[in-house]
Inverse folding.
């Protein structure tokens, strides 16, 4: 029995899973493809299930998480399932008052800015995210040979939601705290790194096959700020997962200038948005890395998926060609699936990638 | 008499104005400093004046534009006035139904997406922006030795507002149009380039001393998209201003990857946001330019201005040091002044820059 009271799950062996081979820098016999936010908004079967379920309640209901996570695997035949969750789940589970407001995003009841507010942040006990672990166990039993990717928000992105009190365009209170009170900032990020690591370890123990650390907002920072104020905490999370044996994917939006630093933080796979081509991304990661294969994930522009198939096909082929500069390439979007995306477009992309 | 019915204004001679010397790549005896959005939101005297005035009406009232534009010059002693206006003004003046909604931004009555909607876009007649020309003439008479910067939104940014119908995080309909119907896209941007050029020429004829072309959203694009779909139209606007004799500043947010292309578009001064240091920006512009001095504008993070004076002072000194890699450097923010900024912080920055 593990600490969470659940039976320890021996990780499945998936020796032929293209995603896991690619994550180790090998060239699988077909290129792996999945889509960030594939489980969710763009699928009518998802919208139906979620109709009367608030987001956080849905994320804490194992059967619902399992079904929503499976929907895009069934529909599109993608090479990975991504756990249906929200980056605010571990904060919610730890007891921070917050809600996911439709059309707005996460809203925190009381922004966290002062020393006393930071010191009062609750610690995440593994038991508090037992419903997520239960969902992982259900999924592992259902998924057959398809790997399951777990995920969490990175310390900086969680900090921005906590400090601003919600989504922010300029992250001004977050950056003000960072520059005005660096010690307090590092105390906050240290606590969030701990919470993130606990959450990801629970997912690993429950049986996920890979983990993605999302630093959605890191692209708002200069490289100097990233290295000084964010990198040590993200690196600690990624290093803390080394013992789990599952590949670690690290992704942020608009992080072209930060790829070297992010690659250095200990990720096996570096996610890239659409702003720079993958061959340029491969150069940047290679320049920053002392050893190990260069594995990239990305980087179709989700907005381009609304342009109709001929344009989408052109973009997919371009991304595949540019991605060949890496040792291995997991085809994905450069950000989450947009809600208005035609799901058939996703299915056709998977067919195209697999047909090659 | 000019085409707009106003007396032709002989441009003032401001041989010692630091901004204009710097724009030509010379080193003035003091470093010029001004702030994007200095005329507006952060000033109590501005909020008082605007209390009962909708934005677009304010922008079309010459005496009000003059007073609002002068406020930060009086208060901070900056080295340039920036015309109080809005990037939607020329579209509004041409007859496109739109409003500036407080807390939201520009909202267009009917999004422009189809061929017929694009072909029906009205042309801007110079007379329609005569109130802006009148404001410029008032300002030129009031400003003494302080140069006045006119401005307009670049074709891509205007297109995004028109196609999306308002502010957009993902620019998905804009990008879909670009990729799905490139001919239509270029027809739209051609019309917007014409409108922007007309508007800027009116400002130049009325007597502004410099012009800034804002491509606020260009950072949402890859360099490939920028070069193919945006660059030709921005370059046409900038080239069309060459005959006016006023320096041209070109700026966008998150455009580190695009600086080479933007420098190539014909700007005398390249604006840079805070994401890359100015010495790196200088390298990128230098690599892209065949001749001419490297003049940069920027790049304090507006969010960092909320961190208190010791942090702000540190940041200003760092930016000045990094900016010395350019032939000349106009100190500014890397985006507009945030509404919650303490105006005294701006005054102290000007004092610090001028004390050196």
């Amino acid at each position: 029995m593990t600490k969470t009271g659940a039976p320890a799950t021996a990780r499945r062996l998936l020796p032929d899973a293209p995603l896991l081979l690619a994550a180790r820098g090998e060239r699988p016999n077909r290129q792996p493809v999945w889509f960030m936010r594939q489980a969710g908004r763009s699928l009518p079967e998802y919208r139906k299930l979620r109709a009367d379920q608030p987001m956080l309640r849905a994320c804490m209901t194992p059967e619902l998480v399992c079904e929503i996570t499976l929907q895009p695997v069934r529909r599109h035949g993608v090479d990975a399932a991504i756990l249906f969750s929200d980056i605010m789940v571990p904060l919610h589970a730890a007891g921070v008052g917050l809600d996911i407001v439709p059309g707005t995003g996460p809203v925190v009841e009381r922004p966290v800015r002062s020393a006393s507010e930071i010191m009062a942040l609750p610690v995440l006990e593994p038991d508090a995210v037992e419903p997520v672990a239960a969902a992982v166990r259900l999924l592992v039993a259902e998924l057959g040979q398809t790997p399951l990717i777990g995920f969490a928000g990175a310390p900086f992105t969680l900090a921005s939601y906590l400090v601003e009190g919600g989504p922010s365009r300029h992250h001004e209170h977050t950056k003000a705290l960072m520059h005005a009170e660096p010690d307090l900032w590092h105390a906050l990020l240290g606590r969030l790194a701990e919470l993130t690591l606990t959450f990801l370890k629970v997912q690993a123990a429950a049986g996920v096959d890979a983990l993605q650390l999302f630093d959605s907002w890191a692209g708002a920072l200069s490289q100097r700020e990233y290295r000084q104020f964010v990198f040590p905490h993200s690196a600690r999370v990624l290093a803390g997962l080394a013992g789990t044996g599952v590949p670690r994917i690290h992704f942020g939006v608009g992080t072209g200038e930060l790829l070297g630093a992010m690659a250095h933080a200990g990720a096996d796979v570096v996610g890239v948005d659409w702003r720079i081509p993958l061959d340029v991304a491969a150069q940047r990661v290679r320049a920053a890395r002392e050893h190990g294969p260069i594995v990239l994930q990305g980087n179709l522009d989700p907005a381009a998926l609304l342009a109709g198939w001929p344009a989408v096909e052109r973009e997919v082929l371009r991304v595949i060609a540019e991605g060949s500069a890496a040792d291995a390439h997991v085809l994905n979007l450069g950000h989450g699936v947009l809600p208005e995306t035609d799901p058939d477009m996703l299915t056709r992309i998977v067919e195209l990638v697999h047909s090659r």
Chain A touches chain B through 35 residues (CB under 8 Å). Chain A has one domain: 18-355. Residues 1-8 of chain A have pLDDT under 50 and may be disordered. The beta strands of chain A are 81-82, 98-101, 105-108, 148-153, 210-214, 248-251, 269-271, 295-300, 328-333.
